[in-house]
Structures are given as C-alpha cells and as structure tokens.
Amino acid sequence: MICMKEILEEFKIEVLTTNTSFIVKYNKDQFNGYCKYKLIEKKGINKPIKQRFFILEETEMGDVIEYLHQRVGLKKDMLEEINKLIKDHPLDKLEKYKLISDVVTYM
After folding, report:
1. Where are the domains of the chain?
2. What is the pTM of this model?
3. Which of 33, 70, 75, 80 gives a 20 to 30 Å CA spacing to 105?
C-alpha cells in the first residue's frame, strides 16, 4: 500500500510569501488546499538567543484529504495519522523553503 506522504508528493506544492505570512499551496487537478503560517521571531530576555518559529494561522485542506480518501480509502482509525500528516507535511515544506531562502540571502 502506498504511503500517504508519498501521495502528497503527487501534488504541485508552492510556497508563497507576503510581508508577514507564508502560504504552502497544494494543487493537483481539481484538488486544492493551503496552510497559512506566520513567522514569529523572539529574542530572549536574559540571553540574546533569537528563536524563529512558524504559527499555523489558517488551513483549508479538505480537497487534499478527499484526494487521500480516494487513493487509500480513509478510515476512522486513521484520523490521528491524517491530522498529523496535514500539520507536518506543509510545515516541513515551509521549513525547507525558508532554510534555502535564508542561505541564498546570506550568500
């Protein structure tokens, strides 16, 4: 049986940026979805360590979940796995995108 993460890789995945947000878009035929994140940067009070992390602000992944269902026949006992996948996959793509763009900016 094919892994659901591999199925998500069948989608065209784009990362779009605005001044304050990053949007990870999924597109495959009539199936579309997105997750919108905000980049937060915090600096420690006692130590000058800067932390950067993404906060999920908005998501619409219904079509993507429907595509997964058509491919593998989702069941109730898969809910936790699907929920984790839908949260982790776009965040992973975003973190890779941000890492690459930071390296290019640094050079």
Report:
1. 4-106
2. 0.84
3. 33
Report whether 59 contacts 89 (CB < 8 A).
no
pLDDT for res 102: 60
Q: Write out the H or E segment, with its range, that includes residue 59.
A: strand 50-60
For the residues of 77-88, what is the DSSP string, one character each?
A: GGHHHHHHHHHH
How many angstroms separate the CA atoms of 8 and 65, rounded?
A: 10
User: For residue range 35-48, what is the model confidence (pLDDT) as tens digits?
Assistant: 999 988 888 788 78
Using an 8 Å Cβ cutoff, are 34 and 24 in contact? Answer: yes
36: tokens are: 């919108």
Which residues make Cβ contacts (< 8 Å) with residue 14, sequence separation at least 6? 24, 25, 27
Name the residue among 2, 1, 4 with its Cα closest to residue 80. Answer: 4
